[in-house]
Amino acid sequence: MKNNILFFILLILGLFFAGLISRNGDIVWMALLFIVYLGIGIAQSPVQEEIKLKARRQVNKQRQEDSSFLIEVEVVVRNEGRKSLCILLSDPIRKDMEVTKGSLYLMTSLKPGEEAVLGYSFKITRGDFSWKCVSAKVADPLCLQSIQIEIEAETELFIHPHHRRFHPFPIRPWETLSSPGLIPTRQGGSGTEFWGVREYHPGDPLKYLDWRLTARHPHQFFTREFVQEKTADIALIIDGRQSMNISTGKENLFEQEIKTAASLAETFLWQGHRVGMSIIGNSYSKIQPDYGKKQLHRILNFLATVKIESDDGKDPLIHFSTRQFSSKTMVIVISPMNSNDSLFYRRLRFQRLQTILICPDTLEFIKPAANRETVLALRTCRLERKRNLNLISQLSISVIDWKIHEPLAPLLRRALARPLVARKI
Amino acid sequence: MITILRKSLFYICVLSSAITAILGFEEYHVRPCEAAVLLCAVLWIIARKKIPSVCLFLSLVIATAGLLLKVSPLVMFFYSGFSLAAWDIASLEISLKNNSKERMSNHYQFTRVLSLLSALAIGFPLIFAGRTLHLKIPFFVMVLLAIVTFFSINRIVNIVKRKE
């Protein structure tokens, strides 16, 4: 818009000087037409004080068949001033937005009290969308001069990764938390399953008195004990390093990891465990461990926002602090590991942390064409991967070699129900 | 409907300007200028969404050349006026290219065309009035006027900058 004024000024000056140089008055008169055009534009230009615009935003989401979401955005802008305004409304576009209907721009004019609707819809698989305002360029009708303003229209929307809770499976952590849960411990206490009978201690609840045994032994009281059931502290770690991410067509390995982490978090939280989450990347973002639905919401919101981060030549895994986990934490790492990562797992084990590695099979994910040239390379890659996984499992880490297109639940059930016994390193 | 009207108006402007200019040049048998007008009209139609400003500039160069070659000034004024209208409609089309809802911009389009028409309606009578007055302005007054115009424009630019 600003360029238009400059262009017209140059045209007018050009005509003026051409007329002066050639001493041709008609050329100068011709410039008059453009001066009038410019003048009309400037005369109708908006004044900042007279602009009173209000906006409200409505966002609807609909799940699609391909597990993505269709987001419908409608921004209604109302002219509450006394003058008609010509405005260009626009919403910021993001890389991952695939606009399917409408557009993010609307050029319109609004009479006093009139409303304009900027509507568009886009498809997204996951992400967080927080709109604070809508941009508006208020201009004269000839679009020569404009005033840029931001109209408040705040909305926040989280699209959680598509995931499914696993069928509940028992887990056997090396150490449990003191709070009651679902994991049976080898201790008597309050629970549901019968553990044994012991002599009555003052303070024991009367409902646990074994009346039959007491009847058989007069002058003595006995209390029934149950197996203590406790919760586990679980830390989920997702590998968000760019160097470890692979994309094939529409599929992305990192997205698969996100979905798996979401499923695991929901399963564990539903079982009553304490779950936290971290991302291996440059920013080291994490969610503190906690219980319940709120924590699930927090984790899913977190997973909606996480992005792959560039490594900048440094390996973030080297600086990833393992001290953030307590000694009772069971660490589950979802990572397509490489040979340099073994140090990190060694650090985890030095801290005596029970660790489980879910390692997606990248070769299976890429599905490279097996021809004469690649067959040897593929074989070497597979051997190297097997060797790396063996090295990790020698550290008493349960390794789940996950072929992405196969279900993960049975593998998890097998690995978590019977964990490897901790060995001294 | 309004899109068809807008496009029709653009083509009418381009064709009218081309026909007017060709008829004007034909009277004085200036063939190269006729060819230039034709080429410019083709450029208007092909590149209206990309380089309308270049097209307008070329049209003005042709109009100036026509005036220097003593072609009827009325014809050249109409040629530049129609070119300005074509430029305005082309710019309007560019600004509406990514519009969300065509329906919402109808009133804006109407307002813009009205502003353009008012500019032409004021501009042409002013030009004709100015030409019929036959004022004999000395050269130094003309230079003075040019300087005053330059400073006025400079002031306008400053005001615009401040507002933006």
Quaternary assembly: heterodimer
Q: How many DSSP-defined strands of chain B?
A: 0
Portion of residues in beta strands of chain A equals: 25-35%
Overall pLDDT of chain A? 84
Strand order of the largest sheet of chain A: 15-14-11-16-17-18
Roughly how many Å apart are the termini of chain B? 35 Å
Q: Roughly how many Å is the radius of gyration of chain A?
A: 33 Å
Which residues of chain A form runs of ≥5 with pLDDT under 50? Answer: none
Class from helix and strand fractions of chain B: mainly alpha
Report the portion of residues of chain B in β strands: under 5%
Q: Give the helix proportion of chain A (percent range).
A: 25-40%
Q: Give the CA-CA distance, first to last residue of chain A.
A: 70 Å
- Helix- and strand-based class of chain A? alpha+beta
Helix fraction bin of chain B: over 70%
- Tell me the overall shape of chain B: globular
Biggest interface, which chains? A-B, 60 and 55 residues
Low-confidence stretches of chain B: none
Spell out the blueprint of helices and strands.
The complex is a heterodimer of chains A (425) and B (164).
Chain A: H1 2-22, H2 25-43, E1 53-63, E2 69-79, E3 85-90, E4 98-102, E5 105-110, E6 115-124, E7 127-139, E8 146-159, E9 180-199, H3 211-216, E10 222-230, E11 233-239, E12 247-248, E13 251-252, H4 253-270, E14 274-280, E15 286-290, H5 292-305, E16 329-334, H6 342-350, E17 354-360, H7 362-366, H8 375-393, E18 398-402, H9 409-417
Parallel strand pairs in A: 11-14, 11-16, 16-17, 17-18
Antiparallel strand pairs in A: 1-2, 2-6, 3-5, 3-7, 4-6, 7-8, 9-10, 12-13, 14-15
Helix pairs in contact in A: 1-2, 4-5
Chain B: H1 2-27, H2 31-46, H3 52-68, H4 73-95, H5 106-133, H6 139-163
